[in-house]
Amino acid sequence: MRSFLIELGVGRRTNGLGQFSGREGLDRGLFWESLETTQASQTPGLVERRAELKVCLLGDTGVGKSSIVCRFVQDHFDHNISPTIGASFMTKTVPCGNELHKFLIWDTAGQERFHSLAPMYYRGSAAAVIVYDITKQDSFYTLKKWVKELKEHGPENIVMAIAGNKCDLSDIREVPLKDAKEYAESIGAIVVETSAKNAINIEELFQGISKYLKLVFQSNCIFMLLGVKG
Ligand SMILES: Nc1nc2c(ncn2[C@@H]2O[C@H](COP(=O)(O)OP(=O)(O)OP(=O)(O)O)[C@@H](O)[C@H]2O)c(=O)[nH]1
Ligand SMILES: [Mg+2]
């Protein structure tokens, strides 16, 4: 059964957001530029924007981070995928309304021996996808540790998205969806259950991040116009 749950964390994280422009935007892994496309030049007043969004994936080894990225970027699933060594990088550009969002995706290695490398990837990220395996309670505890680390050492106001992967195995589930929803709400995160194997909610996960960042960017532009500090 397909599970659809994309919840936007609102409220808690909207105050104090940095203003995503110029150097500061780049430092946060977010870069927006206005561009006149062919279509735009033919249709006066229609200006499209292109955004680059740096996103990192964090979580226990084996939860399916690389599989999620592989499904999103290549629409492919490999049963025999190898554990990631260090980190891997992929990009994918998706439309979001009248904008084009290019995801710069850093897929980190979940094995403990690579833990110390993670800050290199989450620093400067606009969003982090923190993945757990719905059939492994331990991986949910690890997710909470990642959230704590991001809050203490990650970029201020990084957008967090929680992905409960392997929802195709819900008959052997250990983590109730309710627990994930409650936790996500408490930290103002996007939450969704995914299956890289069956291509469930993978697009929706990244679309949710896209839309959330777009909203945050727009609200900060309004604050800037009004002269209100975020
Ligand atoms: N049933 C099922 N298996 C999955 C799913 N996603 C990944 N797997 C399997 O889980 C195992 C681990 O997947 P990876 O994508 O390598 O996990 P990872 O989080 O990248 O692991 P590290 O690179 O070690 O951090 C592989 O055998 C995958 O085939 C899923 O949605 N459903
Ligand atoms: Mg991996």
From TrEMBL:
PROSITE patterns: RAB, RAS. GO terms for molecular function: GDP binding; GTP binding; GTPase activity. InterPro entries: P-loop_NTPase (IPR027417), Small_GTP-bd (IPR005225), Small_GTPase (IPR001806). Signal peptide: none annotated. It is found in: Cytoplasmic vesicle, Phagosome membrane; Early endosome. It comes from the Eukaryota. Its main location: membrane. Keywords: Cytoplasmic vesicle, Endosome, GTP-binding, Lipoprotein, Membrane, Nucleotide-binding, Prenylation. It is a lipid-anchor. The keyword Nucleotide-binding applies. Gene3D superfamilies: P-loop containing nucleotide triphosphate hydrolases. GO terms for biological process: cellular response to insulin stimulus; Golgi to plasma membrane protein transport; phagosome maturation; positive regulation of phagocytosis, engulfment; receptor internalization; regulated exocytosis. Coiled coil: none annotated. Belongs to the small GTPase superfamily. Rab family. This is RAB31, member RAS onco family.
